[in-house]
UniProtKB/TrEMBL annotation:
Residues 6-237 form the ABC transporter domain. GO terms for molecular function: ATP binding; ATP hydrolysis activity. The lineage of its organism: Bacteria, Pseudomonadati, Pseudomonadota, Alphaproteobacteria, Rhodobacterales. The keyword Transport applies. Coiled coil: none annotated. This is ABC transporter. Pfam families: ABC_tran (PF00005).
Length: 257
């Protein structure tokens, strides 16, 4: 049975731009199943980040309903954790202290907080760097620390906005494999925004293609390829062509109502 972790219906969001209403998202609906990975692609400005920010409770939608595990999202950090392109670790805190800080709202005992932070730092392979500061980490390591911080909260839903966008291609594909390994072992649902079609195809069970003017979901493509996926296989290539064609249909634009 399809058990929804995230359920979005009729979501819309507009912003005031130069005295006029600009519609960033219009009547958007989306379901995310338990342990599902869904990637969101689309041209710049089609509302991908706005969608994620609404789910994360950082933006208040104009209309519609967002539920995580059946609960309406009304404030930040409710049922989800967000990973950005830049790691956003606090520079004056060590990796360990950054992860522990994210756990503060859970009001765990001091011992449990320490244990949980250590477990997730180990999971992303950073135990040796737990007492390092962000400036002492490479880009990939800092992004792994940000992932540990998001996973440690154990929300069951991780939202990722271009998480590997700033990494070089070799590191990026290594991080994709690490993410899949963690996902397989830890049973989380992931909604990931990416500009990279290959990344979407490599990671996702479904790819949602968005279109601007106003931002909405144009189509959803099932990626029924077994894992680990072969980027040079004919089936991968056929889906790549399909997504490229879907993206070509989307032309950036801006509607001011
Ligand atoms: N706070 C805001 N005020 C005004 N306009 C905004 C605001 N946030 C987003 N927008 C506009 O809404 C539209 C969608 O932005 P959003 O960042 O969601 O797009 P995106 O698809 O994530 O783009 P990109 O791929 O470039 O990151 C853009 O035109 C953007 O300028």
């Amino acid at each position: 049975m399809f058990s929804s972790v995230l359920s979005i219906s009729d979501l819309s969001k507009s912003f005031e731009v130069e005295g006029a209403r600009f519609v960033a998202l219009a009547s958007t609906g989306l379901e995310l199943g338990r342990n599902e990975i869904v990637a969101v692609i689309g041209p710049s400005g089609c509302g991908k980040s706005t969608l994620l920010r609404c789910i994360a409770g950082l933006e208040h939608p104009d209309t519609g309903r967002i539920r995580i595990e059946g609960n309406d999202v009304t404030r930040p950090g409710q049922g989800s954790a967000l990973v950005f392109q830049d790691h956003r670790l606090l520079p004056w805190l060590t990796v360990r202290a950054n992860v522990e800080l994210a756990l503060e709202p859970l009001r765990l005992s001091r011992a449990d907080q320490t244990r949980r932070a250590a477990r997730y730092i180990e999971l992303v392979g950073l135990s040796r760097f737990a007492d390092s500061f962000p400036r002492q980490l490479s880009g990939g390591m800092a992004q792994r620390a940000a992932l540990a911080r998001a996973l440690a909260v154990e929300t069951g839903l991780v939202l990722m906005d271009e998480p590997f966008g700033a990494l070089d291609s070799i590191l990026r594909s290594r991080m994709q494999d690490e993410l899949l390994k963690i996902w397989q072992e830890h049973q989380v649902s992931i909604l990931i925004v990416t500009h990279d079609i290959e990344e979407a195809l490599y990671l996702a069970d479904r790819v949602v293609v968005m279109r601007p003017d106003p931002g909405h979901i144009q189509e959803t493509v099932e990626i029924a390829l077994p894992r680990p996926r072969q980027r040079d296989s004919a089936a991968f290539g056929a889906l790549r062509s399909r997504l490229l064609a879907a993206l070509a249909e989307s032309a950036p634009g801006r509607r001011v109502a």
